[in-house]
Design a protein that fits this description.
Elements: E1 5-7, H1 9-16, H2 23-30, E2 37-39, H3 41-50, H4 55-66, E3 70-72, H5 80-89, H6 97-108, E4 113-115, E5 125-126, E6 130-131, E7 134-135
Parallel strand pairs: 1-4, 2-3, 4-7
Antiparallel strand pairs: 5-6
Helix pairs in contact: 1-2, 1-3, 3-6, 5-6
């Protein structure tokens, strides 16, 4: 079985918006991945917000979840204290709630890679010191 992929907002927007700078890259990466990719509610909320002007993009966004390409695999209420700690630790970055959720998910799924376009993930660490395995356009 392949290692899990945790997907961030950037690749989802890139996949659903052909005008996005990373569209071709995200599409080619997706072809090498096994569904489902894991994510959290905060990432889906950010993605929906960024696609709000794209009716077709919003329909495709919903289909990612209903077709089980993307799976919600995180409970903010169960992980709230860890999220608050991460947000405090990286307040100078600043870290978004979605980023904190993704970092925490990478701690819970230790063999996972994070699929992102966000360069802040080069600075974030899982479990305090461990580098997060990334699928990023600059790698």
């Amino acid at each position: 079985m392949a290692s899990p992929i945790i997907v961030d907002t950037g690749p989802l927007v890139a996949l659903l918006d052909r005008r996005d700078h990373h569209h071709t890259w995200a599409k080619s990466q997706l072809m090498t991945m096994q569904a489902p990719m894991l994510t959290c509610e905060s990432v889906l909320a950010e993605t929906a917000f960024l696609l709000r002007q794209h009716d077709r993009g919003l329909r495709r966004w919903a289909a990612l979840v209903t077709d089980e390409i993307v799976q919600l695999s995180f409970s903010m209420s169960d992980q709230f204290e860890s999220l608050v700690s991460l947000l405090a630790k990286y307040q100078d970055t600043p870290m978004s709630l979605a980023d904190a959720c993704i970092v925490r998910m990478s701690e819970l799924h230790s063999h996972a890679s994070v699929f992102t376009t966000d360069s802040d993930f080069f600075h974030y660490r899982r479990n305090g010191r461990s580098v997060i395995s990334l699928i990023h356009p600059d790698r």
